[in-house]
Structure prediction request, 389 residues.
Amino acid sequence: MRTQVAIIGAGPSGLLLSQILHKAGIDSVVLERKSLDYVLGRIRAGVLEQGLVDMLDAAGVGSRMHAEGHVHDGTELSFENKRHRIDFKALTGKSVMVYGQTEVTKDLVDARQGADAKLIYEAEDVALHDFDTDKPWVTYRKDGVEHRIDCDYIAGCDGYHGVSRASAPQSVLKTFERIYPFGWLGILSETPPVSDELIYARHERGFALCSMRSDVLSRYYVQVPLDDKVEAWSDERFWDELRLRIDEKAADTIVTGPSIEKSIAPLRSFVAEPMKFGRMFLVGDAAHIVPPTGAKGLNLAASDVHYLSQALIAFYSERDGGLIEAYSENALRRIWKAERFSWWMTGLMHTFPDAAPFEQRMQLAELDYVTSSTAGAAAMAENYVGLPY
Ligand code: APR
Ligand code: PHB
Prediction:
């Protein structure tokens, strides 16, 4: 088989890239290791920047998002038993869209399957070949049969544990990493959200987040030690702990119910450089991870797709390879700023096991600054709604 762009991974990065290329008349094949049900079963964050909303619209997959998603004009920061609103709209003129990543993925899969169906699930042993030449190719096995795809370019959209970054020449690859000494325990419950907007709460007992998927589906998180086990957290224990960490008003009005999902995720900052190796590109989680504070993971994947799709479209329509050469540099410039914001917000809101009383006071002073100074609030708002591409 031959295609123009072989895409490894059918997460949001791979699917969005494939759909945008399809709209521009560029052919691609997406190879995914897991089944469709597995991919759609993953629960991830759900805050979309305007840039991603615009991309989904341009890709022709925005209608359900506009019908079912919720536009949020601000968020709340809770500390010392009070909530303070950061008004995104007033401070930046922009808002965010609350719509689950699972739903984005579903909409993209529907569009890809409807269009030309070059979406191959349960592709085993994907391997990348000769991307340091101008004739790269990819192999995989499906139902016991070996296949080969010849292509012009390979897009490694296969997440943190994928084969693409692992295939890059390790002598060239540089990685930067920070592991945080805690995780997030998250639950999903069929209860109405406690507030119209998200609440990020800083408390001596640890961080908490009140988020949502819809009017009847809520997502809550509490910071837990890294070695904590989900089994140690009954629903009752979770709700009790959450109530202790949010302001009393929220604690008194929160509606609790049985969890329908419960899991612990570690927090990590990670960047791999460069993001281009000959004719192979890294995109999304394959190249970088952010801690979830600030919900930048999916949005960063989208900005990579923006830079790469523009570069490929310029190459195929005008034979101009300039943006392809600049992909890594352009993508990384924005990635590092989002890494900085996610790291900053994580540091601002969490309890660090080794923090001295001085550092705790610094956290509170910074929260006071962010919520009482227009300049402080604007800096947070500008980053939260998303820096320009
Ligand atoms: N071969 C084929 N597919 C693979 C391979 C492989 N060797 N390894 C991994 N994959 C698939 C995974 O099964 C997954 O479906 O690649 C996909 C990568 O998807 P994501 O991990 O969702 O990464 P990405 O598409 O970049 O999306 C980034 O997802 O992880 C969140 O926080 C992150 O919201 C961000 C978004
Ligand atoms: C979520 O709803 O899962 C969510 C929202 C905001 C975050 C992280 C996760 O910062």
Summary: The chain has a mean pLDDT of 97. The chain is about 40% helix and 30% strand. Residues 45-47, 198, 209, 211, 219, 292-295 surround P-hydroxybenzoic acid (ligand 2) (CB under 6 Å). The two ends are 34 Å apart (CA to CA).
